[in-house]
Amino acid sequence: MAINLPAIGASTEKSGHGRHEKLPSAAADLCSAAPGTVGLGSVDIGDFIGESFLFLGAGSTVLLQLASPGVGHGVADHSSTLHRPMDRLRTTMTYVYAVTLGTPDERRAIVRMVNKAHVPVHSEPDGSGTTVPYNAFDPQLQLWVAATLYKNGATLYERFFGPLDDASAERLYQQSAVYGTALQVKPDQWPATREEFEAYWQHTLDTLEVDDKVRRYVHALLHGGDSPWIVQLGLPLNRFVTTGLLPQRVRDELELPWGPRDQRRFDRLMTTLPKAYRLVPRRVRWLPSSYYLWDMRRRLRGGRHLI
User: Fold this and answer.
1) Are 73 and 216 spatial neighbours (Cβ–Cβ below 8 Å)?
2) Domain of 110?
3) Which residues contact residue 9 at a Cβ distance below 8 angstroms, ignoring those fewer than 6 apart?
4) Do the domain assignments include residue 22?
5) Structural domain includes residue 58
6) 262 is a domain residue
7) Residue 161 contacts residue 51 (beta carbons within 8 Å)
8) Which residues, including other chains, have CB under 8 Å from residue 299's CB and lie 6 or more apart?
9) What is the pLDDT of residue 48?
10) DSSP label at 122?
11) Model confidence pLDDT, tens digit, residues 88-126
């Protein structure tokens, strides 16, 4: 499977800084479309990756990743997220936007920096036999991270814009392999079909195990770490949405309480919110992704760090 990223949902134009991709315009036609009426094969990853609704799924995506022992221990041991939560959000979203909307040079730059940041992220056996083995360059761990990015993105898209037709769903799935193949995941390690992906997804969910160390880290993360006070104001809603988007088995592993009343409230929210969201102009909805891309390009021009 080949991923031809420059063609993903974008055209190129000449600017004062060389060639760069325009933000996709195909999604503009989707904003006024009723759910379930998207045209045949009309959606690809570039049409929705910049939508702000994806931030709703950021928390649940991270928790799904942390529920994998290798990822969870690697992050708990090495990540600065609790101390610099907003900066870590920036770097994560910069990676996502760079590999999907960036130029080839921008993608190469972000991949180099991610690889450099991953060098120290590995465990050393301590002789007790209790150390969880992990290595940030492990393609199986990267595959799970990529899978969560695809799964939550596609699920949220359908919650907000209605079911994808088969051609669009297939194109989105194949393009989403880039989350992993930009790093150490080989193209043939990405499940060949959506059916194979669902089998991989369910098997992985069924075998996830969370220990007390990762569980404590997750609970600290859900309470914001050292977030600015203005971010702290939104944490109760963020915890609620994050928990609601998780499969029940992962909630149980993480010991996140969730009952019938929570589910009813969540269902009402996810019925009302997409209707309101579709009324917001697309340029406004894409402001966060536009900002992160602008910030990435500013940092690259100034020789500043991205990761």
Assistant:
1) no
2) 34-121+132-301
3) 24, 26, 44, 45, 46, 47, 49, 101
4) no
5) yes
6) yes
7) no
8) 305, 306
9) 86
10) B
11) 888 889 999 999 999 999 999 999 999 999 999 998 776
pLDDT tens profile 2-47: 333 333 333 333 333 333 333 333 333 333 333 343 344 578 898 8
pTM for this predicted structure: 0.84
Reported as a single tens digit per residue, the pLDDT across 41-71 is 578 898 889 999 999 999 999 999 999 999 9
The DSSP 8-state label assigned to residue 18 in this structure reads: E
The total domain count for the chain is 1
**What φ, ψ does residue 21 adopt, rounded to 5°?**
-85, 140
Provide the token pair at 27: 């999604």
The Cβ of residue 123 has, within 10 Å, a number of other Cβ atoms equal to 15
184 confidence band (pLDDT: 50, 70, 90):
very high
Sign of CA dihedral 82, 87, 93, 94: negative
Q: Find all residues with CB under 8 Å of 150, minimum gap 6, and list them.
A: 172, 173, 176, 179, 197
Alpha helices (H) in the chain, listed in sequence order: 45-48, 58-66, 69-78, 85-101, 104-118, 139-161, 166-176, 178-181, 194-207, 212-222, 229-233, 235-245, 248-254, 260-277, 282-285, 287-301
Residue 85 lies in a domain: yes
